[in-house]
Specification:
The chain has about 650 residues and is of the alpha+beta class. It is built from 17 helices and 23 strands.
């Protein structure tokens, strides 16, 4: 089976898109509930010089590499052993190794949504058949426990009697299904097939039967969250409200000592979710839970959930988020720290947490339409998220530090990127996420198209009374110039909303944790068919309502200059320090570019810099230079071996 999926994917990049809504899409949209709908990747053709190479890297290199690793470490074999087709003990070191295969299938399914490919479908069917072998007759599916419940792969999974569900705080028996459900939903959307979905539904029916407050049921909650969003997606795929209600049951009973013995703040199980106001504990678990809470707030019109997620979001972005968009300050517990605790050398800032933050913020934007959520999405995407993947597609960061001294082995035992991890959640999470990036560009309401991110692309968008076509041409993020070509089929007026990024509004990020050292006087400008137009701006968007049936060309220019950033003084790690940004990109200095002066580098408030495009460096980047230093985009650091790095540099006392 080696390389089969790789070869199939080679011919199915996002170079084409279908513009006709599938029957499956129409069915699931009935249960979506959100005020704003994303323009799905099926309707977006990505042509971007920045993002398309990253997507191709995942499709051409990372998926094949991960499948080889999964084969080497027995991921597929575990399903066959669990189903009695092979003999042996559990392979791998983690109780959630099953999810690596689920996430790879999800990423490949996103590729299918972009461009149908029969060979890829057949390959996925083979992998799904292997998964089906490992499922028990009643729907249970966690291979290590089926193989030998007395011998979990990780020593921290408690075994008492070898029964199911006896150590949910650590066994991941409901984390595994969560990723299964997410992947099965995406595969169903991509293909219309129910082979994977049926495996997920059979498992979910077992959980509906098993958990709750009814006679003979188990009253408890999951340890590691994600099953909640997975159950909600099964509800959207099937229309069966029992899945939605089980998701809410799990959320409602976190922090409820009458329901179960509490897992504590580490698992966000210290207070009822509607009473939680501070983001605490394991950062990945947290943002997955907040995403599910947002779904419940929307789908079940729950105002208490709505208020809770708003307070949690404000705490995270205002007191606990890194400049890169990363979250999670402590290696201990992979967790958030105290308010304003944001160390650089020992930052955890897990790649999975960045992905989870984007999922959560995307839901919040779909409900409220506020530009601030996309400010966080963009900051995270261009910095703390893609930093997790190397330029060759086969080396990874698990944590994403903001400083490195070449000695501290921050990356799970390494000073630089690693080729794999015994806990391989981050590489496979990148695989499921990156092929779907095009789905973040645009969103819509009845007769409004929102342009949320700037990237070379073409999209066809069905609105309530019109069909709109849009094309973006841009060198973003290296330039703030964006050319948009817009047309509609009918003369009915359509509103375009063009997002002004926070950095072009003189705001580093919402929440006030970071500020620019100086105010930038330049403002965005817009021309339509060559004629300058006065900007009507509301809530961070440029508003344009008109008849586009004859077509129009829009030239948007966002002022891009080198900006110096300072931090709230309550962040001790950054006292007396500045960082550099250009557009949405956070910059870092590496010892490779500053070999003789690295330890003495500083940034003064009045320093000036030159921006230089260097096509041969790190895949092509803008560098920031002056007579003292050279800075590169943060996401590209540690692609040249072990070296030193800093994002925050001290201000000199005397200049």
């Amino acid at each position: 089976m080696k390389h089969t999926l790789y070869l199939a994917i080679l011919s199915c990049f996002v170079f084409s898109c279908s513009t006709q809504e599938t029957q499956v899409e129409a069915e699931v949209s009935k249960y979506a509930g959100y005020r704003i709908a994303p323009v799905d990747i099926q309707h977006v053709r990505m042509t971007d010089d920045f993002w398309l190479p990253i997507i191709k890297r995942v499709q051409e290199q990372t998926i094949a590499y991960a499948l080889d690793k999964c084969e080497e470490e027995g991921r597929m074999e575990n399903f066959l052993i669990a189903g009695g087709k092979l003999e042996g003990a559990t392979r791998g070191a983690m109780p959630f190794d099953d999810t690596d295969l689920y996430k790879i299938i999800e990423g490949a399914s996103n590729s299918l949504i972009s461009a149908p490919n029969p060979e890829l479908e057949r390959t996925l069917d083979t992998l799904i058949d292997i998964i089906a072998v490992g499922q028990e007759a009643d729907g249970y599916l966690t291979t290590w426990r089926t193989i030998d419940p007395a011998k979990p792969p990780a020593p921290w999974v408690k075994v008492i009697e070898g029964k199911r569900w006896e150590s949910l705080e650590a066994s991941h028996e409901m984390y595994n299904p969560g990723h299964l459900y997410e992947a099965a939903y995406t595969h169903y959307i991509a293909t219309g097939k129910t082979n994977f979905l049926n495996i997920a539904l059979k498992n979910a029916d077992l959980l509906v039967k098993t958990f709750g407050d009814g006679e003979g049921q188990i009253s408890t909650v999951p340890g590691h969250q994600i099953i909640e969003t997975g159950l909600i997606k099964l509800y959207m795929a099937s229309g069966e409200e029992k899945y939605l209600h089980l998701a809410k049951y799990f959320l409602d009973n976190r922090g409820n000592p009458d329901n179960h013995e509490l897992f504590g703040p580490y698992a966000q199980d210290h207070l009822p979710v509607v009473e939680q106001k501070e983001v605490v504990g394991h950062a990945v678990r947290a943002v997955y839970m907040y995403a599910a809470m947002t779904d419940i707030a929307v789908l079940m019109r729950d105002s208490a959930y709505d208020q809770a997620v708003q307070q949690l979001w404000e705490n995270m972005v205002g007191k606990k988020m890194y400049l890169t968009g990363g979250i999670g300050a402590r290696h201990d517990g992979e967790s958030f720290g105290d308010n304003y605790e944001l160390p650089n050398l020992t930052a955890y800032s897990e790649t999975c947490a960045a992905i989870g933050s984007v999922y959560w913020n995307h839901r919040l934007h779909r409900q409220y339409g506020d530009v601030k959520y996309y400010d966080i999405i963009e900051r995270t995407l261009y910095n703390g998220l893609i930093a997790g993947l190397s330029l060759d597609g086969t080396h990874f960061f698990y944590p994403n530090a903001l400083e490195a001294d070449g000695k501290y082995e921050f990356n799970r035992g390494a000073c630089t990127r690693q080729g794999w991890f015994d806990c391989s959640c981050c590489p496979t999470n990148m695989i499921r996420f990156i092929p779907a990036v095009a789905g973040l560009l645009y969103s819509k309401t009845e007769d409004t198209l929102l342009v949320n991110l700037y990237a070379g692309s073409e999209a066809t968008v069905e609105l309530s009374s019109n069909t709109l076509k849009i094309k973006q041409e841009t060198n973003y993020p290296w330039s703030g110039k964006v050319r948009l070509t817009v047309s509609t089929e009918a003369p009915n007026p359509v509103m375009l909303k063009l997002r002004i990024p926070s950095w072009a509004r003189n705001e580093v990020a919402p929440g006030g944790l970071y500020q620019y050292q100086a105010h930038e006087r330049a403002e965005p400008t817009l021309k339509i068919d060559g004629e300058p137009v006065a900007l009507e701006v509301a809530e961070g968007y440029i508003l344009l309502t008109r008849d586009w049936s004859k077509g129009a060309t829009l030239e948007l220019e966002l002022p891009t200059t080198v900006r110096k950033v300072r931090t709230d003084e309550r962040v001790e790690a950054n006292l007396g320090k500045l960082a550099l940004e250009y557009g949405p990109i956070v910059y870092a200095v590496e010892s490779f570019d500053n070999p003789n002066v690295f330890e003495n580098l500083s940034i003064a408030p009045d320093d000036t810099f030159e921006v230089r495009w260097q096509p041969e460096l790190l895949g092509g980047v803008n560098t920031i230079t002056n007579n003292q230093l050279t800075a590169i985009p943060y996401y590209a650091w540690s692609n040249r071996g072990i070296g030193k790095m800093k994002v925050w540099l001290p201000k000199p006392e005397i200049r």
